Amino acid sequence: TGFDSDNSSGEFSEANHKVPEMLDLDPHQSNRTGKHNGETEIQENGIKRHRTSLPAPMFSRSDFSVWSILKKCIGLELSKITMPIVFNEPLSFLQRITEYMEHIYLINKACSHADPLERMQAVAAFAVSAVASQWERTGKPFNPLLGETYELTREDLGFRFISEQVSHHPPISAFYSEGLNKDFVFHGSIYPKLKFWGKSIEAEPRGTITLELLKHNEAYTWTNPTCCVHNVIIGKLWLEQYGVVEIVNHSTGDKCVLNFKPCGLFGKELHRVEGYIQDKHKKKLCVIYGKWTECLWCTDPTTYETYKKSEKRGSEQKKKSVSEEDIKSENDEADDMPEVQDTVQFIPGSKLLWRINCRPPNSSQMYNFTSFAVSLNELESGMEAILAPTDCRLRPDIRNMENGNMDLASKEKERLEEKQRAARKERAKDEVEWHTRWFHLCTNPYTGTPDWLYSGGYFDRNFSDCPDIY
After folding, report:
1. Is residue 123 situated within a structural domain?
2. How far apart are CA 173 and CA 161, in angstroms?
3. Structural domains counted in the chain
4. Largest CB tally within 10 Å, which of 24, 178, 314, 403?
5. Residue-wise pLDDT tens digits, 83-92
């Protein structure tokens, strides 16, 4: 896609609202110098390029017994259990949410299409891509502290993002993102329910995700699939997503139904996604298939049914990897996609909707982070003066873990958790209610369900009344 984080030209400047009218989606022509129109563009904190690796490699978990901790948690909600830092990755859950934006080019593509069916296809691909970064990510993100925030402005990608931990029990994270060209708004509130079932940990998704395409006056809503981590006691950890995701276009009545298939007994369905787009009269307009770890394709229902019937009749259909020539012939936009070996059985005549980003070569030593994820916690000189004092980048436990200082990270984690408990007791003693700073609880205007919506004002950077949580 050309969106590797080291190609960034810097964050959005409040003093300069100029944004390129067209985002360059070509990886071979992307700006690698941090310059626009012959001038070096420096963001508020002075960063010209984003980092491409973490300060210290990932530590080994082989010396720790997962079972000694988890055997006491069977059937319990894990959000209420204090977990050792050895199970974590050096990111807050608020930063993990921000990884939805890694494939923002799909939102840009949806905004550019005149055909509502093509817009829904791009939105469906975006919804699937949002969970793709979790592939092989078996580390647990840090639980955000109440009042914790995270901001990210990527002028090169054309968006800015703000999130806040609005509730501790139950844990609820609210986020809001907008296009710098004022072409979209993306927001939601997430409160996953984690449970341990003996051999696996399951994260049941709760909360609504909303994408508004302002130019087309359209709003889409959906909920993420269930995520499950297997072999937490013995064996190699692996992750799967399963469940039905329904994406609704509240303006046209179109709906996309995606079935994230469970692995099954012999693993035949592992990572597979199949579904369809239908209009308001429930007529199928196209079929979508692929894997959330690899790629997503679409074809017309007749072609799909014909292909499936030929399979059932015993026709020999060989799985093949789609070469660069095949992709070009089926989809003119495939030049923007990285070269990844497919295991998806390709149906002739299909159109490529999305393909996963190639990860950096040292990803396995960096908690299996993508290039985008590697950049999320970087803290350069001068950023403290710009960020809210509650920003994740300022958390000492995450910072020390990222730097490889595990002992100090563990002590800081315990200190922050104790400070949070003491603050909660003090509020209870004085009968003072907690007030969120950047989001408020109300009703989602499209689904009618409770939702946390952005109150505005964060980028005015008046942080005088932010709580002291670190």
Report:
1. yes
2. 13
3. 1
4. 178
5. 678 889 999 9
